[in-house]
Write a structure and sequence with these properties.
about 190 residues, alpha+beta, 4-stranded antiparallel β-sheet, 3-stranded mixed β-sheet, 7 strands, about 20% strand
Length: about 190
């Protein structure tokens, strides 16, 4: 079950804009992050949920979409995310969030995939512009934006060849994600 969810949890970048996601559904996914591990149990992460079409459109231009696909400027109209979750560190609680952001986002996205949706963690964000749209103060540090929607693209995981881990799209727009073989990532077993 967990391996299937992890395998299906890809970075989806093209969505069906006709399929909306409710705030209540997103809060269910954020609750998975709330229940997840937190360094020192500080729980300094906060979340801003964006589902309003107008605000989604305002955020979209300030996101980078796929560094290895240099000729692709991001999803076209009709294929854009229908919601976003901004992942924020509350500096009133802790200056250092350690690895909590990765744990939280993985928990959220596993719930997203389990419910038949998809998402993409976006670190290439004009944080100043998006923070302004979200009306964040200086104590709330924008870390990431998670794009959400109903995927309309096929993403396949395959074994990397000759160390090439760059994702790519074929002529049918299938998104290929090479993963290093297990024997390349395990350094030591004690048997």
């Amino acid at each position: 079950m967990i391996k299937e969810l992890i395998t299906r949890n890809r970075s989806y970048r093209r969505f069906d804009e006709n399929v909306k996601i409710s705030t209540e559904q997103i809060l269910k996914w954020i609750d998975l992050a709330r229940l997840s591990a937190s360094g020192r149990n500080a729980q300094s992460l906060k979340y801003a949920v964006v589902t309003a079409e107008e605000k989604c459109e305002r955020i979209f231009p300030f996101l980078g979409w796929a560094g290895y696909l240099s000729n692709w400027k991001g999803p076209a109209q009709g294929e854009r995310p229908v919601a976003y979750i901004a992942v924020i560190n509350d500096r009133n609680i802790a200056e250092n969030h350690y690895c909590d952001d990765g744990i939280a986002m993985q928990s959220i996205l596993l719930g997203v995939v389990e419910d038949g949706f998809g998402g993409c963690m976006i670190g290439s964000v004009n944080k100043a512009k998006v923070a302004k749209i979200l009306e964040l103060d200086e104590k709330h540090e924008l870390l990431w934006v998670i794009a959400l929607g109903k995927p309309i693209e096929k993403v396949v995981v395959e074994e990397a060849e000759n160390g090439n881990i760059k994702y790519w799209r074929d002529d049918e727009q299938v998104h290929h994600v090479p993963k290093r073989p297990i024997d390349e990532i395990v350094l030591l077993t004690d048997n």
